[in-house]
Amino acid sequence: xxxxxxxxxxxxWYIRNTGQADGVKDLDLNVLSAWAQGITGKGVTTAIMDDGxxxxxxxxxxxxxxxSSYDFSSNDPxxxxxxxxxxxxxxxxxxAGEISAERDNGICGVGVAYDSKIAGLRMLDQPYMxxxxxxxxxxxxxxxxxxxxASWGPTDDGRTVDGPRNETMRAIVEGVNKGRKGKGSIYVWxxxxxGAADDCNCDGYAASMWTISINSATNDGETASYDESCSSTxxxxxxxxxxxxxxxxxxGTVDLYGQCTLHHSGTSAAxxxxxxxxxLALEANSNIGWRDMQHLTVLTSKRxxxxxxxxxHNWTINGAGLEFNHLFGYGVLDAGDMVRVSKKxxxxxxxxxxxxxxxxxxxxxxxxxxxxxxIDTDAxxxxxxxxxxxxxxxxxxxxxxxxxxxxxxxFLTSPMGTTSMILSHRPKDDDSTRxxxxxxxMTTHTWGENPRGKWRLTVMFDTKDPLSQGIFSEWVLVLxxxxxxxxxxxxxxxxxxxxxxxxxxxQHASERFSQ
Length: 515
Fold this sequence. Notes:
Layout: H1 31-36, E1 45-50, E2 70-71, H2 91-100, E3 117-122, H3 131-138, E4 147-150, H4 166-178, E5 186-190, E6 211-217, E7 235-238, E8 251-254, E9 260-264, H5 267-284, H6 290-300, E10 316-317, E11 323-324, H7 335-343, E12 351-359, E13 363-366, E14 371-377, E15 390-402, E16 408-413, E17 419-423, E18 436-443, E19 453-461, E20 469-482, H8 499-508
Parallel strand pairs: 1-3, 1-4, 2-3, 4-5, 5-6, 6-7
Antiparallel strand pairs: 8-9, 10-11, 12-20, 13-20, 14-19, 15-18, 15-20, 16-17, 16-19
Family: Belongs to the peptidase S8 family. Furin subfamily.
GO molecular function: serine-type endopeptidase activity
GO cellular component, one term: neuron projection
């Protein structure tokens, strides 16, 4: 296949990693494999919910979808970024370029889905954000916008616990149920830039089961210094070159006023890359639903060379045979395999949810002894309208307070023995009054497992302060998944493309998954 001639293409290591900037050869999104199949994003529109798009940029103008764009800051259909001397409002433009920068036009680089369309939903650049503005952006033109890409969220200060308000939540839920004429809008979210001192399960946008939370890796497979981690992250893409470089090899893309840049970075850069890969999948199969995209992500993402430099989070195989990592989710997106599988994909069965059990009782715990609670559930087996046999998302709605909220850590262990860290130590969070109230901690690590049996919740302190104490008052366990085996109708030929599928099928056929 002929390579793009765009001047920055050789530096777009996230598309084609040849080892430039001391990266690991072939550690990339495998985009060239998708292009070689004739898939380039045609007919797909991604909306960038951000500070605007420089739609006059010569590398974006031909792929700009004006009909699906709007400026919620100025209430007009022209979401051009507000001018500042320091180019502060370049964020959305850079994200757009990663997805849809034109190919072979002699300008900047090339987008992951260079024949797809991008729309601008300008909503960030204003004195304050409202629930109604967020909701309006997330539901705008939802029959024509396929993917909504968001590289923002609550403040990444390691203290904040926040998420969507009522109208925004309603918009997202209606989007996955009604968007794309019933197939469901795809919401892609950056996991956050709070680093090891933060936890993206405290970000209600990234940790939502209706969004696809994307973390980032450097070009040598490590986590960047700013990456947050959490059990709700589904997969990873790329942000910077080697983390210890004094001058990181950033993400090459377009910039304001016809310019180019090699300095885009952060999980802000990772989410649009994922949106570009998903645009390729949607061209390959326009019938893919919002849940199908999550299943495709789980099955086709790769461990590749991703690793935890500090060796705190190892790769683990869950009870369904799927390999995951607390930092990287199910691995780095593989555009080539996602496209191959999408072409033969059969929509997954109907989704159900089950309130598996709850504990409403006050427990005191301290630094010397962990609190261990169990819920033994049949996963609503007797209720055909809510029974769950094969897991997708698991939520633990928890209410807990402590003398120092950030010192609490929590682990959820499934009946099949998979342990998810649903809350990590946040050393900057010194809250002592609000705590967590019915907060929906979520994990994707038990994907495909049988949920019946004992679930164990472990609540403990990660501190040496002998005076630390807390009060736990509620745990509601909610299971989401299918009653029927999700992959039975898929062609056996796909097992050559995704070995994970063969493992999951064999696990599902075992007695452990009996219905």
